[in-house]
Predict the 3D structure of the following.
Amino acid sequence: MTLLLDLALSAVLVGGGLFALIGSYGLLRLPRPMQRLHAPTKATTIGVGAALLVSALDMLGAGSISWQELLITLFLLLTAPVSALFLAKTLILRGEADPNLPATGTGADWATLAPERADP
Amino acid sequence: MILPHALTLFLACIALSLVLNLWRLLTAPTLTDRILTLDTMAVNAIALVVAWGIRAGTGLYLEIAVLFSLTGFVGTVAYCKYLLRGSIIE
Amino acid sequence: MRRLFPHPYLTLTLTGMWFLLVNEWKLGSLVMALILGTILPLVTSAWWPDRPRIRRPLALAAYAALVLWDVILANFQVARIVLFLPRDRIRSAWIPVPLALTQPEAISLLAGTITMTPGTLTADLSADGRVLLVHALHAPDPDAVRDEIKSRYEARLQRIFA
């Protein structure tokens, strides 16, 4: 049983590390700015997630419950989309994203480009 | 028994990611790319701290990770807001 | 009561968060958590005037589980694209997604979900709040991606939010 748990935790940890590495590699490899936004937001989150899961289970195995892992996981899951959105808005405003944005179809412009922007 | 070795491998992966990120930071084509790279570095640093905490066997390192996740996020948003609006606090 | 607790869910969440932060079960922490949980919603209520109307809180938990599972699958997809797809074969696309949701809380939840799941990223919202701009990393068929977002996530959120 302990050996099985050990194996499972090791597999999760190694997988997570590889994902984090892939995310950082994607940052270098993908050619366009908007594409580069994809790799780190997803892959690195799973890397940290793996470390946090192993940390929580490891503490549990040692006989003490730690809740801060849960807090960090929640926080990362909540903040990753927000920072990605902000970065995307910055790319659009500075014209570094692919320039041919589609029309909204409702008559209004995209919020970042609208003349009187609401608070982002 | 295998876990310490897996941990070493994980730390190596994160360290290599951080090196790649540093390289990206130096060669980034645009300002936004630099912010994205800094954000990624913060997340990788959290992973590094958490993994080191497992190796050290104390929960103390988690406090550092909590603080880092808070400040990293606020930093990214502040940089973006500066580029978007020209000021951070309005 | 309503004026003292403008957002009861926020009060509960802040209390829970404080306990996670302190990492110990003590009476003093509960007092501090309740003080913070009362003051923070009061101070910030000017920026969040309306309460979100949640019809089925339990369905929200099921939705969170679904999203968490999709996040893991998303990583395998993105990893495959990053590692094995030749650079010039990556077909990125902008996809406008018209929204049926109207509550701001529901829209931001959908936007977050899109960012965390397979190969898509929320980039912007239209100025009138009725269309989301989604960027897909590799989407040979953009319409299929839009339909999947609408049927898999938006339909569920519509059932959760009244």
